[in-house]
User: Fold this.
Amino acid sequence: MLSYECNLRLKITRSGLGLTQKTCRVKVVLQPIAIASLLRLPERKLTLTVRDRLTDLPLLTPVQGEIEIQHQGTCIQITARVQAIVTLTCRRCLCQFNERLPLQVSEVIWLDATKSDPKAWPLEQEVPLADLMEYLPPDGWLDVGQWLYEQISLALPSQPLCRPDCRLDWEPEDVPALDPRWASLTRFDRLG
Ligand SMILES: [Zn+2]
Assistant:
């Protein structure tokens, strides 16, 4: 479990009945949300305004944006529209550079008490690829912070470059002498 703090604004929108939008602002430590509690909200929907420094991520600025969580009976739809500036290390020149990371991601998490309980899994079972989905128990908890952490981690570039044409502007000083037995292979290098 991650430890972090955030400023959270809870926005509850009431439609119909002539009620105008009501906005609650609370400052809390972002905690897992009881899935069943979503059922009591109008449209079974919770909108979180996030401005948060997630630990263990190379963030220059806090993550800012909105996360929408809607209970749809048999599943939860969770959608994030957030952005942050991340500090990355170029894989070629090893310099550090900052990059804006916009993230728009949506995921369906199915609610199934049996599939979400590892103790109920058979010791060995072939699972079709389509069944590799995320499950949570209907009376369980949704760790929004952990989910957001995972989504941002997945969105970080695996091969970051400070610029598309980044080249090393230095050559290694001690170039090892070429083994004559491999000399003919350099031809292929040049062809490639
Ligand atoms: Zn570079």
